[in-house]
Amino acid sequence: MPERLTGRVWKFGDNINTDLMVPGFALRMTADDQVKHLFAANRPDWREQVQQGDIIVGGKNFGTGSSRPGARSLYRAGIRALIAESVNGLFLRNSVNFGLPALQCSGVFDAFQEGDIAEINFTAGTVRNTRSGVVVQGQPLPQMLMDIIDAGGIEPLLRREGYLAPI
Question: How far is it, in rounded angstroms, from Cα 131 to Cα 137?
Fold first, then answer.
């Protein structure tokens, strides 16, 4: 994973629940089919607009709720980072485990409009709006978590380290 990542911003507000990301009926589907239903209840056309490399900017408590595979679906849809005012702890770990970096960054929600371009420096924990020039300081992820993300998630890391059998 590069030290810096740049991508188009999609904004989601406070208390975005994993039930909104992956609806209950989709849980019996394959991981590829679950992606087709991301945010279908509140942003039905969103999935068709997302492009590889896009970034989500969220409000407070992003990823609250059950441990549905929302982070996996976001990653499979092309989202390459989540920056939010705060991220639910379970969702943060699930994001890392699926290779999706998730930074907590106070002030990030107000610093962006949907469609802006964000430039993230993961090492420094900074997020810059390329349109306005505003820079907000977040909490960099510890190196141990960055190593998991760099490997593509926990399973690829464990396979590479010899703890899981190759596929």
Answer: 17
Which stretch of DSSP H or E encloses residue 115? none
What is the C-alpha separation between 87 and 93, in angstroms, rounded?
10
Give the integer Cα–Cα distance in Å for 102 and 99. 9
How many Å apart are CA 164 and CA 167, to the nearest integer? 9
What is the per-residue pLDDT across 1-50, written as a single tens digit (0 to 9) for each? 678 899 999 999 999 999 999 999 999 999 999 999 999 999 999 999 99
Q: Round to whole Å and give the CA distance between 63 and 120.
A: 20
Of residues 108, 45, 113, 111, the one with CA closest to residue 82 = 108
For the chain, the average pLDDT equals 95
Let me know: does 34 contact 73? Beta carbons within 8 Å: yes
Q: Between the CA atoms of 50, 52, 53 and 57, what dihedral angle is there, to the nearest 10 degrees?
A: 20
